[in-house]
Amino acid sequence: ALGTASLRGAASVQYRADSWLYLTPIALAWLLAGTVGRSGRVTALAAAAVLISWSILSHEQVGYRRDDATVVRRALDVDPDNWWARTLSAELALNRSDEATAKEDALRAVTIQPRSAWAVVALADAHRQIGDEETALMLYRLSTRTGWADPEADQKVGLTLLEVGSTAAAVGLLERAGSDAGLALAYARSGE
After folding, report:
1. How is residue 11 annotated by DSSP?
2. What are φ and ψ of residue 90, in 5° steps?
3. Are the C-beta atoms of residues 103 and 122 closer than 8 Å to each other?
4. Using one digit for the tens of pLDDT, what is the confidence trace for 51-67?
5. Cβ neighbours of residue 22 under 8 Å, at least 6 residues apart?
6. DSSP-assigned states of every residue in 117-129
7. Model confidence band, residue 14 (pLDDT cutoffs 50, 70, 90)
8. What angle do CA 102, 107, 113 make, to 5 degrees?
9. Which residues contact 9 (CB under 8 A, 6 or more apart)?
10. Which of 50, 70, 49, 72 minimizes the C-alpha distance to 60?
11. Which of 65, 70, 103, 122 is the most buried (most CB within 10 A)?
12. How far apart are CA 142 and CA 121, in angstroms?
């Protein structure tokens, strides 16, 4: 989930911020190392202390990247109103078949960022997984009108429309999503 999410969420800085944080200290370490040769033993000890503390901090940061759930939990610890982390948390909950948590996190993500097609789709997915096809379809349709182009949302709406028998309405969305498999299914059902 996080791999796909990171591709879709290029605008999301939260997840990349912690991992880029250690690059500045590396440059500072090089600067300190350059001064060690000129300044003597005290500077060398100070540089060693700084490098050891950075190593400890880096070890802590690496621990936050153990798996997708840990990264998302860390992002929510840092900022509980991070809509993108809430959306990912909902997707992870759906993968665990924890519909209640998925629905709660997706609803919170939509509340925080109502124009996010991804958050709306996550909420729709939660409703669909619990069997509420009518609400899921309404949310899938809403996701295509959020102002953010999302081919995955178009495909899910199209496939849901196919399931409820609205083949003609599904074709346009599946074409827009570039879903060859969905279009093949739509044409097979319509007899074209």
Report:
1. T
2. -65, -45
3. no
4. 787 777 777 766 666 67
5. 54, 57, 58, 61
6. HHHHHHHHHHHHH
7. very low
8. 125
9. 15, 84, 118
10. 70
11. 122
12. 9
pTM of the model: 0.55
| Among 72, 73, 52, 70, residue whose Cα is nearest residue 62 | 70
Tokens of 93: 């909950």
Distance CA(159)–CA(74), nearest Å, equals 34
Asked if 163 contacts 173 with a C-beta cutoff of 8 angstroms, the reply is no
CA-CA distance, 190 to 93, in Å (whole number)?
36
Q: What's the CA gap between 149 and 189, in Å, rounded? A: 27
The radius of gyration computed from the CA coordinates of the chain, to the nearest angstrom, equals: 23
Q: 89: pLDDT confidence band, cut at 50, 70 and 90?
A: very high
Amino acid in the structure at residue 11:
A
**Residues shown for the chain:** 192
